[in-house]
Amino acid sequence: MVAIPTETVYGLAGLALSEPACRRIFSVKGRPLVDPLIVHVTGIEMARNLAETTPAFIRLAEHFWPGPLTIILRKKPVVPDIVTAGKSTVALRMPRHAATQELLRRTAAPLAAPSANPFGYISPSRAGHVAESFGDRVPYILDGGPCEVGLESTILDISSPDNPTILRPGAVTAEAIGKLLGRPVSIRSSKAAENVPAAAPGTFARHYSPSTPLLLFEQTRRPNPPEDEAVLLLQRPDGTEFSPNVFWLSEDGNLEEVGRSLFAVLRKLDKGSFKAIHCEFPAESPNGLSRALRDRMTRAAAK
Fold first, then answer.
1. Is the peptide bond before 286 cis (omega within 30 degrees of 0)?
2. Which of 241, 239, 247, 238 is nearest to 274 (CA)?
3. Structure letter (DSSP) for residue 217
4. Which neighbouring-strand residues pair with 204?
């Protein structure tokens, strides 16, 4: 079991076709067995060994892989049930990070790799986050530097060809996918109940959450809490608004920078002595990162 870098977040990787290896991942993360794992592959040819591929899949993979798009297909019997939470489908992705691509080539085997954090906690976007969370329980960390995107991949379910559906928004947008496929793509927010198989990884109602209570506010309703509660803004405030309990995710509100910064800053604030974190909610927009950020923040703030 090795922590690996991807362009999205760090993953906790083991051999996907080894049930003991996958069981170890679940155990170390404290992840429920009803939550399926994403399987990382070297490309289309390896994917063909694991799933029933389709023309739509080939088109998507050729266009978006390597990259932050996970594609759900009907699985082949070679994939252990523990990987898919007993479902008949498997989630596949080809990561873009050069170090993990090289690891996959040398291993010549698919790697199951959920995010390298305790289940439900803030995702890791740096190698140090993995070490902080697990210590020597994860003996090896492949340090690839800060993650380029910082938010988990878009998960697209095309196991039913007539109904392509995004189960988790990410950097690859519904609009971009729909344009490539020549048809609309629906977006579903899954709220999987306990002890029921999740629709896809990262779709529990509460996820990515700090231990400190997280409260969301719209830009026009900025709170003014006491100094023992933090305020996290999307962009740097002007000079009149500086305060020891005010933090920001981007200098100018650029959503790509916000995405790269979100999990690292939430971890920093969670380690502080704040009694609550008030986080600015991005305006609703067809922009893929806006949609993805709203999804992560909503889950992180869920009771």
1. no
2. 247
3. E
4. 192
In this structure, is residue 197 part of a structural domain? no
Task: Give pTM, 2 decimals.
Answer: 0.92
Give residue 297's domain range: 214-301
The tokens for 243 are 């305060």
DSSP state of 142: -
| Spatial contact of 91 and 104, defined as CB atoms under 8 Å apart | no
Q: pLDDT, tens digit, for every residue of 40-65?
A: 999 999 999 999 999 999 999 999 99
In this structure, what token pair is assigned to residue 279? 């986080």
Each residue's pLDDT tens digit, 90-116: 999 999 999 999 999 999 999 999 999
Contact 288, 169 (CB under 8 A): yes
Which residue do the tokens 């344009």 mark? Answer: 179
- Can you list the pairs that 52-55 forms with residues at least 24 positions away whose Cβ atoms lie under 8 Å? 52/76, 54/158, 54/161
Same domain? For 18 and 104 the reply is yes
Helical H runs in 71-229?
81-84, 98-107, 127-134, 174-181
Does one domain contain both 117 and 7? Answer: yes
| Number of domains making up the chain | 2
Cα-only R_g, the chain: 19
